[in-house]
Amino acid sequence: DTYQGLTRGTTHIYNLVPPATLSHTAFLQIYYPSTNILRAMAALNAHQQVFALSLMANLLQKNKGTREDLQRQIQKKLPLALLLLGGDWRVTWGPVVWKYSPDDAKTGPDHVWFVARNPNLKFPNGEQKDTYVLAVAGTTTDYNWVVNNARVDKVVDYHKWLEAGITTPPKEEISTSHENCYIAYGIALGVYRLASIESPAASPGNTLPSYWASFPDSSETKVILTGHSLGGALSPSLAFGLLESGAFSKFKPNNILVYPTAGPTAGNLVFADLFAQKFPKVPGSGYQVWNYNVINELDIVSQAWCISKDASPAQNMGNIPTIYGSPAILAVSMGVAAASLWASASGTIYVPIPAIRFKGTPPASRPTTMKGFLKEALKQHGEEFIKEFQLPIPTEVLSGEEEGIEKMTEEEAEGLEPVLQDIVNQIKMERLAAEPGQAALAGRYQAIAQLSEGFAP
């Protein structure tokens, strides 16, 4: 009835260290004795497993400590969390924790990412493939909202940057051409960090480009990049950069897949066009669609950073004030207006990549205060995705709320919202004109928007 001093059926998985003689199934039966839970975990489809991996990148979401402390924690917790997926998932690169202030013990990680492998992942068509999943964490700190999310006032010419190398720091600029492939400067900084940091754990000393380059030619192996929230913007942007730079040359291009969820918009129309060409839709039922951003129509994060209803009727910042009903809360409208000005300072219009949309459960009544609005926004950004994907894995594991990890306070939870709080505080008095001549681009905007579609839960 006990194992290493813990009572059977408790949820403190991170305190367990399974001996080599204990099988995965036996370990889970000790830990989660419910046959129904074990059966449900064994039946997870490929998209559910990939989504769960993206959430597991957030295991340290509100944990605080130095970079070394956080690195030790994620190396301990992640392999145990992977057991809940069943199958043969193993970490093959990373995990990596990066902090802007590595010795600051009072803040959390700024970036967390890893690669896990399943040699026999079953895909919707019934085929089993050797599969590597690169999972990128979402927003966890003020650094990420201010630098990675809020730096939409400047852009980076992606192809010009790749000429210098994806592991070199990007250079910010203001958009000067409709024909250049631009991504937000903050997203480019995030991609640079993800691509340039060497793993201190599995595959030590390798950056992601050198890791993928070390593979033999692999005609059947699949690689999937995934992330939720900020990770939902970083993962497709990183996938595009690694593919364009030749880092994935050992793999067939159609075996490189992307599965972002709840991602804000990262780039301009040219980027959205090229992304759709390089990563064409792999259709499926409901959320089981590769290479599309899976979004909740009631999640405000996915409404950032497009400022044009003509460019993207379903995903633009103008939808935010009344997303939970009319009339709009004045503070929300003011925050959106300020953040829209900030995005327009880039001189470009951000255009979402193709998306597959579901609609979360609407609030019983319209929020009438900023606090109520942000509480609903947090629910739609997190809980509604867990509900949509029907994950049987205990939520406290996926959200990083297990023993030894701090729970997110209500105030910290509200800080997850990128448009209305952190970014407004960063608004400067710059007033630059938005890119002219948008009417001529209406057809291209519509073509990208029409690739997106909704599905019923």
The total of helices stands at 17
Strand content: 5-15%
Radius of gyration: 21 Å
> Can you identify the CATH class of the largest domain?
Alpha Beta
SS-based structural class?
alpha/beta
Name of the CATH homologous superfamily of the largest domain = Alpha/Beta hydrolase fold, catalytic domain
Predict the CATH topology of the largest domain: Rossmann fold
Q: Total number of β-strand segments? A: 12
Record the strand order, biggest sheet.
Answer: 3-4-5-8-9
Instruction: Note the main sheet.
Output: 5 strands, mixed
Quaternary state of the chains: single chain
Task: Give helix and strand order, one letter per element, not per position.
Answer: EEHHHHEEEHEHEHHEHEHEHEHHHHHHE
Number of domains: 2
Which characteristics define this entry?
single chain; 457 residues; alpha/beta; Rossmann fold; 2 domains; five-stranded mixed sheet; three-stranded parallel sheet; 35% helix; globular; disordered N terminus; Fungal_lipase-type; Lipase class 3; AB_hydrolase_fold
Précis, in short:
This protein is an alpha/beta fold.
